[in-house]
Amino acid sequence: MKNSTARLFPVFLILFISLTNFSFAQIDIRAVGADKVNERKAQGLLTGQEKYSNSQHQPSAARVIPPGNPQTQSSSLCNCWIERDNTWQIGQFDYQGGSGGPGIPPEYRNDDWSTDAISLPFNFCFYGQNMNSVYLNNNGNISIGATYAIFSAVSFPSNQYIMIAPFWADVDTRGALSGLVYYKVGPTYAIFQWENVGYYGTHDDLLNTFQLIITDGNDTIIPPGDNVSFCYRDMQWTTGDASQGTGGFGGIPATVGINQGNGTDYIQVGLYDQQGAAWDGPYGNNDGIDALDNQSYYFNCCFSNSNIPPIIRSTAVCDTLRLCVGDTVLIDADYLSPEVGQITTSSVNTNGMNGITVLQQTTGNVAHIQIEIIADATNLGFNTIYLIGTDNGVPAQQTSTPIVINVQPSPTASATFAPPSPITPGTVVTFNNTSTGLFSNWDFDDGTTSTTQNPSHTFNNPGTYYVTLVSMNPNQCTDTFVMQIDVINLSADFVCAVPFICPGTCTDFTNLSQNATQFLWSFAGANPSISTDMNPTSICYNTPGSYDVQLIASDGANTDTLLMQNYIVVYPFPPPQGIMQSGDTLFANQGSPMYQWYYAGVLIPGATNYFYIATQSGNYNVVVTDNNGCEVEAVVFDVIASVNLLAPNGNWELSIYPDPVKSELYINGIQSPVQKEISIYNLLGEKQLSALLDKPVVNCKSLLPGMYVLELQAGENIYHAKFLKTDD
Ligand SMILES: [Ca+2]
Ligand SMILES: [Ca+2]
Ligand SMILES: [Ca+2]
Ligand SMILES: [Ca+2]
């Protein structure tokens, strides 16, 4: 929309401009009244074409700084900015203008005013013509042939304005916080600087800082081959209130570029109307103000009506990059065609330098290239590489940007240390520096450092330490070497779940060591007697006694030993067992706390008394557990079951009747008057009754129906008989 307006606009304006210039420029601002002009702009009634003169303007020639001025310094792609000093002067904005003027000495704060022509003591080549004076206009531009009070910019090309515009927008330096516009003229250059300038109307909340340099084309203040430089520091606003801006943005965009006024010779960098750093090239979308921050642009605007070589845009390209071997640097550059529709390609000429990789390379109206340089030992000293932008104009033009890279040798950092990691707290570590650099800087990662060549250091606390050695050459190139040292609390510890065991049994050990990786166990009196397992199992002890266990835990470098004396207790052997058979009743030795009978190797549930009445013929065994829980076993073969008789132990017999019995059970054959102890067990060996008998009868009425065993103890003799109890 804006571009098409700009193209139609000039047809009507050529005559109009000369007319308006003539008419307004001749009217003294004092005759019109500055307040009235200001009021009209505030009301939106000024077009910017209106221009008034100031009859009280006193021409004062610009000071020309003599050659050899020590303040002159060259700018570079890396640092285009020329610092202002006391050889500069404030722009005298009281010659011609519109709103907000004329400026009043000494600061000449104003809105849309211009200086009188500033003479150039050199030829400034502008599209084929040598220019010897320019006007400095407050609104971010200089012009040739006429002052400009216009505050709303137009897109280039335009056949209206002969203008070099680092930032054509509605600058307003009347705000209290706004800076001023300065300039300096040297023998072969002129510099113009808008320093922290505010925007219309009188706003100073956002400020822009930018610089314009023009030269004779040879001055080294800007890179060779160019005669115009735009250089930016922080840029913060784009649009004044009279250009439909709000809060410094929106409305009619600011224009950055150069315009010869013939509709064909021009350069445009972009049109800016918004916050942020968006930038898609000179045309396309409007651009963000921060895309200009710290940028530099160099142009040769001496060519007339010809294809302009691509223009580089880069902040990273310095005149000399100093790199140490191994350093990595990224360089980004854009090449503007800059003509609408032209396509530029980017490339790099490494010129024999190694370690250069093209990471990004795009082609378009704006071509982008990103290269990575890893400084290589094969390129010590000065190297020159070239970033190149080539357009597809006729004839094709190429811009080759030299980048000088000084590669410095780097040392190699390396070291050894002893004893090896891991170490235990309090260990003194001795470092042996094998670096090639002259200077060493150690960081032990515990808050202490050293510059000793071969330091020793004590690590007092457990942890992982990254000891860093920086080795440095006299040229400040460095290399870094990092060593990991683990400081650990090594401890041997273990437990045995069952440290009290029966002879002939085995036990297991559980490792509780910390930070150990290797283990050596010693088991006195056991089989095996040593083990290197982490958790040894099946450590067997045959002989009663108390035994030591020792564990030596190691992390490969350090050891810790734990000796547990008399830790394993092996119980005495349990008393031997045997089975005696009496009839169908089997007797183990009495007096042990636990018995378990087995028939044919199969556990008989409930058969846990010291005797068992065989209910079927075959092989029986009993496992007897002693007070320590140790077991012993006895076996009896070929038992004949169902022999129901009282066992008299040889010399006399007893009998019981009736059988089955309902209540009174009589025992016949008891030798009186010896007192007898009687007990009745069920078949599981559980005692049901017991009594001292003074006559040979037992009342069995309370017994449940079933088979029972009567046990009679007379002195040292014990007798057994089986009987059946029935219901009444
Ligand atoms: Ca202005
Ligand atoms: Ca900015
Ligand atoms: Ca754009
Ligand atoms: Ca071009």
The Rg value, from CA coordinates, equals 55 Å
Q: How many strand units?
A: 56
Bound molecules: calcium ion
Helix proportion: under 10%
Total number of distinct structural domains:
6
Average pLDDT for all residues: 87
Question: Any chance you could write out the topology, listing elements then pairs?
Answer:
Elements: H1 2-25, H2 29-32, H3 34-42, E1 52-53, E2 89-90, E3 96-97, E4 113-114, E5 118-126, E6 129-137, E7 141-143, E8 163-168, E9 171-172, E10 181-185, E11 189-199, E12 203-215, E13 228-232, E14 254-259, E15 266-274, E16 287-288, E17 296-299, E18 311-313, E19 320-324, E20 328-336, E21 344-349, E22 356-362, E23 366-374, E24 381-391, E25 398-408, E26 415-418, E27 427-433, E28 439-443, E29 449-450, E30 456-459, E31 463-472, E32 478-487, E33 494-496, E34 500-501, E35 505-507, E36 509-511, E37 518-523, E38 526-527, E39 530-531, E40 539-541, E41 545-554, E42 559-570, E43 579-582, E44 585-588, E45 594-599, E46 602-603, E47 611-613, E48 618-625, E49 631-639, E50 655-657, E51 664-668, E52 676-682, E53 687-693, E54 697-699, E55 706-714, E56 717-725
One calcium ion (CA) binds at residues 111-112, 138-139, 151, 170-172, 200.
Explain what you see.
It is a single chain. The protein is mainly beta and 728 residues long. It has six domains: 261 residues, no CATH class; 88 residues, Sandwich (Immunoglobulin-like), CATH 2.60.40.60; 73 residues, Immunoglobulins (Immunoglobulin-like); 77 residues, Immunoglobulin-like, CATH 2.60.40; 61 residues, no CATH class; 71 residues, Immunoglobulins (Immunoglobulin-like, Sandwich). Helices cover 5% and strands 44% of the residues. It has three helices and 56 strands. Strands 2, 9, 10, 11, 12, 13 and 17 form a seven-stranded antiparallel sheet that branches. Strand 50 and strand 51 form a beta hairpin. The longest helix has 24 residues. It is elongated. The termini are far apart. The relative contact order is 0.05. Bound molecules: calcium ion (4 copies). One calcium ion binds next to strand 9.
